[in-house]
């Protein structure tokens, strides 16, 4: 009799414990955005039981939700947006998001997730999944299965590797993996997901492995703030559609031939590295290149043969290097530019020979060099929109300034030079007249 009573009590206890164990929503508040209804939930095992609206609904959960079980967010045909951000979520059981045909936007950011199990996200068609700012260290094989996602946000987690098999029959347009601890991307792990944009800034990647970056559909690749020291010929061979490549703040010291040639890249930025050597043909045959940024490096030499066979870049930035002079016909391969930025170098003079074959520049920036003399023919025949010669070491400029800068259409910036007292009035008068002329040009009624 005594043992039978114990078994009955134990069974009741286990039943109640099991019931409690499956409850995800306890002492939480649901906010329906459309109606602004706030629903207090004392205890519930399924979100659906507490949603008031029968129309499409967007729900935000406020409170603490440490775990989502298989049926926690199950079978809600009218759920469009679901926000479970900053709710202390530690675990998601596979199947928690089943049968949600209208779900478009799922926000699970700023929680305590450490891993994503196989099948956690499956049979969904979403615009966004936000998983950033968790503590995710492991993505299991098949974590994302049979789904379509436009934007998958996994930034600010603790991933050290991206293994093969995470995605099974998945289409993702934009993948955000910034601010993780990634050191490796497994070969072909991203090759089958129709990816267009990949954000990998602020990780610990040391190279561009062409087998890891075997992504035929990729258009934009952000590798800023990594630890890449060497580029090898063929690194980009499996990125045939690449249009934008960002390699700011890595550890690059030289650029060899065979990395960028014959690519479709239009935007290339290599700024804030330690680049001191660039092969003569490193940027040849880049027919789509428009923006070329090698600013903030250690270049001491400008090669006038760079960018051969490159139809017409619009923006060339080489600011904050260590260039002391320009060779003759320095820009012969790209005679028409929207921007030529040579600020912050160590150049002492510019000769007309250096600018020969340069036809037109929208904005020509020579600020913050060491230029101490300027001749009447220094600009040659270049047509310039705005010209910045400020913060150099000029004491005076001989001759008629209207003729010296006659091919500058709009403004000439000359401030911050150590002008001789006898030259200041001439400089001020010229500057005022340029400003007056520009105002009259922009506003014909200006007097």
From TrEMBL:
It comes from the Eukaryota. It comes from Zophobas morio. Keywords: Leucine-rich repeat, Repeat, Signal. Residues 1-20 form the signal peptide. It holds the Pfam family LRR_8. This is Uncharacterized protein.
């Amino acid at each position: 009799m005594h043992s039978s009573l114990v078994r009955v009590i134990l069974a009741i206890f286990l039943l109640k414990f099991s019931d409690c164990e499956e409850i995800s929503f306890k002492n939480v508040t649901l906010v329906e955005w459309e109606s602004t209804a706030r629903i207090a939930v004392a205890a519930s095992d399924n979100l659906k039981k507490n949603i008031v609206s029968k129309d499409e609904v967007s729900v935000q959960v406020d409170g603490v939700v440490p775990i989502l079980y298989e049926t926690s967010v199950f079978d809600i045909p009218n759920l469009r947006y679901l926000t479970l951000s900053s709710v202390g979520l530690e675990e998601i059981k596979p199947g928690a998001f089943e049968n949600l045909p209208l779900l478009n936007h799922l926000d699970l950011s700023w929680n305590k997730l450490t891993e994503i199990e196989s099948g956690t996200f499956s049979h969904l068609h979403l615009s966004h999944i936000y998983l950033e700012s968790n503590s995710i260290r492991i993505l299991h094989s098949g974590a994302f299965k049979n789904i379509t996602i436009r934007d998958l946000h996994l930034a600010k987690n603790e991933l050290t590797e991206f293994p093969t098999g995470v995605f099974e029959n998945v289409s993702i347009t934009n993948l955000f993996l910034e601010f993780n601890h990634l050191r490796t991307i497994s070969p072909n792990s991203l090759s089958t997901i129709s990816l267009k944009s990949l954000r990998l800034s602020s990780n610990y990647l040391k190279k561009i492995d062409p087998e890891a970056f075997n992504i035929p559909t990729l258009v934009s690749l952000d590798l800023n703030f990594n630890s890449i020291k060497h580029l090898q010929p063929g690194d980009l061979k499996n990125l045939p559609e690449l249009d934008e490549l960002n390699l700011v703040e890595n550890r690059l010291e030289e650029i060899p031939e065979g990395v960028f040639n014959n690519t479709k890249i239009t935007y290339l930025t290599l700024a804030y590295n330690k680049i001191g050597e660039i092969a003569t043909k490193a940027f040849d045959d880049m027919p789509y290149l428009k923006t070329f940024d090698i600013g903030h490096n250690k270049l001491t030499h400008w090669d006038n043969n760079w960018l051969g066979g490159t139809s017409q870049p619009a923006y060339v930035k080489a600011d904050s290097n260590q260039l002391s002079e320009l060779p003759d016909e320095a820009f012969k391969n790209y005679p028409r530019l929207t921007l030529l930025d040579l600020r912050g170098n160590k150049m002492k003079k510019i000769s007309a020979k250096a600018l020969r074959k340069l036809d037109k520049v929208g904005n020509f920036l020579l600020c913050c060099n060491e230029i101490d003399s300027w001749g009447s023919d220094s600009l040659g025949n270049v047509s310039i929109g705005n010209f910045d010669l400020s913060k150099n070491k000029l004491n005076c400029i001989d001759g008629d300034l209207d003729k010296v800068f006659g091919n500058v259409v709009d403004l000439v910036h000359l401030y911050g030079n150590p002008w001789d007292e006898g030259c200041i009035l001439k400089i001020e008068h010229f500057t005022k007249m340029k400003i007056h002329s520009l105002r009259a040009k922009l506003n014909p009624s200006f007097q």
